[in-house]
Amino acid sequence: MAYLITNVSVLGGAPRDLLIEDGVVKEPGSDKPDNILDGTGLVALPGLVDLHTHLREPGREDAETVETGSRAAALGGYTAVCAMANTSPVADTAGVVEQVWRLGREAGLVDVQPIGAVTVGLAGERLAELGAMADSAATVRIFSDDGHCVADPRLMRRALEYVKAFDGVVAQHAEEPRLTEGAQMHEGEVATRLGLTGWPAVAEEAIIARDVLLAEHVGSRLHVCHLSTAGSVEVVRQAKARGVRVTAEVTPHHLVLTHERAESYDPVFKVNPPLRTPDDVKALRAALAEGIIDIVATDHAPHAVEDKECEWAYARPGMVGLETALSVVLSTGSLEKDGEIDWDLVAERMSRTPARIAGLTDHGHDPLPGAPATFTLVDPAATRTVDPMETASRSKNNPYAGMSLPGRIVATFLRGEPTVLDGKAVK
Ligand SMILES: [Zn+2]
Predict the structure, then answer these.
(1) pLDDT in tens, 207-241
(2) Among 57, 79, 81, 417, which is 20 to 30 Å from 100 by CA?
(3) Strand partners, 83
(4) 174 CA distance to ligand 1 middle (Å)
């Protein structure tokens, strides 16, 4: 089916018409297709790419499935997500990554690119079959034990050496485990007041410092997951200045929420790494604008009610994020120039660069004639009040309940097929 989108602004440019046909964007001719979308006031962006999504299948289908997570992603403007390996069973073999990849194809809502585990069972003891996962139908290029840190420096070194053979990347959840034993929230004045065990900033920064040195030594690619402290930004800044092949991500929640939220004892705000201080938030926003932090990644972490609506100490860490990511980022003003949204920068941080890191060559292309029709349409003038119950995700652990956020995803297309129209999932 062909679509004509009229009067739409591509990345903030002058309004124009676009023809969507045969999976690509074309220059409109004189024939008018049956489907016409009025793009007045809308901005077209390359489909967003999430480098850090937890889809929970196989194993915790009560919290999320590949299909429900894919639908939430499409509603958030995403056309590709990278699925973290901490499923049950763990995605540490060709069989499991191929299963996730196949489920993603069957759902057909976004491209689901599996991430492979670095170590068998995420146990941090021996390397998983990285080569077999790379050679599988899922062509895994990103490896991560996310949820856990690859704490053993020898294993981390070997993983970095191994992935070089196929230009892979190791994505590290930077958390020195000995420094975070029993940790419940950010180590600081709020934790002291609440009597909760602290997760010190240095536990993150020490691992990043070690890993950039290892990546430099090996000459391999390192990606740092969910940077959360001002000190981490400085470690990455110095490494980049030396030419280390390191990229870094920040989550939407670390750009807006701070450790004071724990005062409510509402476990919806429990997350790993924890919410930090206002000064950290400021540094993260500046680093995202500057490019020391390369991308926004959601760390979408759906949890079933019984794992989240309980006492703080027993609650699982994590929050959902796919459907709100763009709005939350826009609300921070980090990607603005002279008070206006810099759509080129939004595309850079949320589509092109994550696509490049993940090696997803079908994604991250500006929706102009000749490009794959894999894009999203945003209404930047719309605002919405977040209701956790209004979601395609199976989980409702949404920390933005009641917040008014700018921007609304109106439509998303994957290779010429709409996955979202008029703000609603097509299938
Ligand atoms: Zn993590």
Answers:
(1) 999 999 999 999 999 999 999 999 999 999 999 99
(2) 417
(3) 53, 114
(4) 8
